[in-house]
Amino acid sequence: xxxxxxxxxxxxxxxxxxxxxxxxxxxxxxxxxxxxxxxxxxxxxxxxxxxxxxxxxxxxxxxxxxxxxxxxxxxxxxxxxxxxxxxxxxxxxxxxxxxxxxxxxxxxxxxxxxxxxxxxxxxxxxxxxxxxxxxxxxxxxxxxxxxxxxxxxxxxxxxxxxxxxxxxxxxxxxxxxxxxxxxxxxxxxxxxxxxxxxxxxxxxxxxxxxxxxxxxxxxxxxxxxxxxxxxxxxxxxxxxxxxxxxxxxxxxxxxxxxxxxxxxxxxxxxxxxxxxxxxxxxxxxxxxxxxxxxxxx
Length: 297
Prior knowledge:
- By secondary structure, this protein is α+β, with helices and mostly antiparallel strands.
- The protein folds into two domains: 3-73 and 84-91 and 124-170, Butyryl-CoA Dehydrogenase, subunit A, domain 3, CATH 1.20.140; 178-295, Nuclear Transport Factor 2, Chain: A.
- It is built from 15 helices and seven strands.
């Protein structure tokens, strides 16, 4: 085995971890792959003998690449998600079949970050997002994060603390019982199909937020409150009639497929036994990248 092949094999051992870091930083699966590939290019041009901890080195490099990508996004992508203005951009969903019992799938679900949390991460500044993601989600020490940001240890710690307060305030931890969560989502979908307003109110939190991202050609919408969200049952029902149960970022969700194409993805956040957020991706451009064959069934 050549030296380059050996290095490539060592890099592949870290790819899934690096992709997870990049996804949490960028919220885009395509950009995450780009960031990981750039990390490989930088590694291949580096003096590997000087790298004592390859995993730590790669994680830091991916963090720096993602930080640069966040700072250089187009004007539309730089804008945070503004609910009141109707500007909604949801992160790319990670979709898997709930029937997959493989060990790899179990790891994926256990390591998932919900769509609601990803939405909040979109509202952080690039520096806040890096500090929070690398420290709180991946346990990277502040003294390793600070050089990436060009800040002091204390300043980096303050960034993470500020981001943590915003995350905890906007996206408290969801319920964890997978069976109960699926029952609640199924009850919502059944009520949607039947247009049962009262049944919808029973499973919706009074402060529920429903967000839809239709991409550039369709305006994003935000609805708040159980009554307002429940009143859209007919809209939800159109997808619910042909919906397929899936996991979206490890949580119960639904994918609607028509003519062999994915036409919408719904993700649900459940807290205290009720649905507190519904995130709907119906952007034709991004949905076209989802392969229906991964859904199973």
